[in-house]
Design goal:
- By secondary structure, the chain is α+β, with helices and mostly antiparallel strands.
- Strand 6 and strand 7 form a beta hairpin.
- The chain is globular, with a radius of gyration of 26 Å.
Length: about 350
């Protein structure tokens, strides 16, 4: 049986007390400053990290694990959600689970972060992300992808880019809990000595670290407020040809690669490892639609099938030889044009 609610020992308001009334509002002082309202930007160019050989020193740096995926910005409004690539393309339809999770956050904001697909060990698998999206030119949606948020650029009418990173991160943590385990998660900052953290990241097979100045505002360029330190180098190169093989996967024995130099391209070596069978077979078909009799670089090589420099490959490597060729290179996958992958440029 449901018990009757207990009567209060004393009335909330004594009969002798006047009724509660709100204080009348005073007319607004015209001299009082108004908080500025910033219109929500349609797009914000991302802040980019400079590549450096070792972690920076000092207490003014925040460290994050470097994840291998696609840089995205989430534009969240009450009436629409947009998932924008680094190159400014709308990929909302290609990341439906991320877009759905973004709609649950509510409010109006812009989040900066990385879309990844995790392997069984919890590490980002770039090839799996590419496969989920259907490869180059694919139309599939990557429902298994998650978004790792690491910055907050706009919130409920206020542009936060002029604030220090430490303040933006604090606000971001109030929006996305540390223990969030859905399609949108908080990329946690790591405290400690940069050298020790970098060694641990490499030991666990991670790509490397990102270091960011805690007191720096958000700049849409590459000026050194953010730096990256890689365990294994990974850069983007044009595919300019391939060496056919009857024994290799997909019939590709080796890809020939080129980087930008000045206004043209320069040959930087080849790659013959890292291919998966289904990727190699499709890559061979794509390359055969781009055949050309004239190589994109001044290079003579017997038996090579030359192709137009259209496809961009992500290549892991262990540095460069004295004659400007990649050392111990391995194929990771094709980059999307709409991802705006920057082809590696050699300083003239």
């Amino acid at each position: 049986m449901t018990k009757a609610p207990r009567k209060p020992s004393r009335p909330l308001l004594r009969e002798t007390e006047p009724p509660l009334r709100s204080r009348p509002r005073k007319p607004r002082d015209p001299e009082q400053p108004r908080l500025p309202f910033d219109p929500m930007p349609e797009r914000i160019e991302p802040c980019l990290a400079q590549l450096v050989p070792k972690p920076p020193k000092g207490d003014n740096w925040l460290f994050e694990i470097k994840w291998d995926g696609y840089r995205l910005a989430l534009h969240i409004e009450p009436t629409r959600i947009r998932v924008i690539t680094r190159g400014g393309h709308d990929w909302t339809h290609r990341f439906p689970s991320i877009a759905q999770a973004a709609s649950w956050l509510g409010g109006t904001m812009i989040l900066d972060g990385e879309a990844v697909v995790l392997d069984e060990q919890g590490r980002a698998d770039f090839g799996a992300l590419q496969q989920a999206l259907g490869g180059r030119g694919g139309k599939r949606s990557a429902s298994e992808a998650i978004f790792l948020a690491f910055d907050l650029l706009y919130l409920d009418g206020h542009d936060l880019r002029g604030m220090a990173l430490a303040e933006r991160r604090q606000m971001l943590g109030s929006i996305i809990p540390v223990d969030a385990f859905g399609a949108i998660r908080l990329l946690q900052a790591i405290e400690g000595d940069g050298d020790v953290l970098f060694a641990a990241a490499c030991e666990h097979g991670l790509e490397g670290l990102i270091a960011k100045k805690l007191d720096a505002p958000y700049h849409s360029d590459r000026r050194g407020d953010w730096v990256k330190i890689k365990c294994v180098q990974s850069e983007s190169f044009f595919i300019i040809g391939y060496e056919p093989s009857t024994a290799a996967l997909g019939g590709i024995g080796r890809l020939l690669l080129a980087a930008r130099k000045g206004e043209g391209l320069v040959y930087v070596g080849g790659v013959g490892t890292g291919f998966k069978r289904h990727e190699a077979t499709k890559l061979r078909k794509d390359l055969d639609t781009l055949k050309t009799s004239k190589p994109a670089v001044a290079l003579k090589r017997k038996g090579t099938i030359w192709v137009q420099p259209t496809l961009i490959a992500e290549i892991e490597n262990r540095g460069w030889t004295d004659d400007g060729k990649l050392r111990h290179s391995s194929y990771k996958g094709l980059r999307e044009k709409q991802d705006n992958a920057a082809v590696y440029r050699i300083d003239v």
